[in-house]
Amino acid sequence: MSTGHFNTDAVNRNAAQEIVWTLCEGLLEPGDTVSIRGFQANVWSVNGAPQSVEVKPGKDSSVGDIWTMMPGTPDNRQNLGHDTERAVIDLCQLASPGRNSIVVLIAPEIKSQVGEGAGLAAPFVGEKDAAYVEAIRAFPIERVDPGQASLKLPFRFTEKGRSFDRTLDALLLVRGDFSGEPLASPRPAIQEAFERVKQADYPVQTPTKPGDPNPGPGPGPQMRTPPEPDNKAAIIATVIASLAVVAAIAWTLLRTRPIKKPRYLKVKDITFDLVNKQEADAVCTIVGQGYPGDSPNLVQIVGIPPLKVATFLYEGNEIRITAEQSRIIRKSLETVAGDISLEVGFVGEIVFEVEHRPQPLLPPTNVEVPIKVEILSS
Fold this sequence. Notes:
membrane; alpha+beta; transmembrane; 6-stranded antiparallel beta sheet; 18% helix; 2 domains; transmembrane helix
């Protein structure tokens, strides 16, 4: 969640906190892991808060730990704007180990914003930055229009007896090789949300302040109390159409993705047709310069010894990469160890490490060999 505006815009601050809390309540089930971060010029976390929380059976047992991660003020060490592209890079790196990871950014406006303050304010990363391009290859952005938010999240607040409607932007990133795990039973909040949305009947939820004599179903065990905004507006309540928000994000994130079989494998600039491949068939082999043989299935890498680096195998819905005289060390942004499998839609680099002795009398050195790989369904 962007936090640079938190001290001067209590309405959007409360709305962002409530939406994040609503998502946690509506979507998380035991076994899920959640991390909450603020972002301005850089991504930051609340001092003393856990880096992530695993939801335990009896969801209330995790409430306190989750709430401690929720930012309540800006990080005053930084400029008060926000760099969305830098946040995407950092958050995708944070989420990359899990194939069922989802990243949600929430801000009043998702585009990068210049802000005030004398803190950290590195130049904006921008959408052409190599690390950003690599991040959204691994975590494609779910949106219709380039440069825009994935969703507009509606909320209503009341001030001095009058109600006003606003929206926050949400940017959703889902791993290209997203692999969810089956649930023992449907998530009831999502089912209820879909029913409410179909009926256009959005229940509202009113967060409360500490000391409220009639506390409602507030967003956590204790609301944070940042400094009052300069205008000291008496904000009576921030009212969120909470289940509508859950439904909108759940629909985008958790919709059924049909399993697609790989049709083509592209390694470097060579494309291999998979239409007649059988289970466990070898598709191609990565080899070093001078490796014996002239098979069209050999992909030769210049500058490394004549080794058999790795084999790509067809496995029905996936392509499996088996290391031979090498180690697989990275898959796009993710550090890996051992053989890996890739699904349709993967576009990125697989990095191998091979031993190379440039001169007979010199000790061997480890050399990284990046290979661009793409798996297509048509």
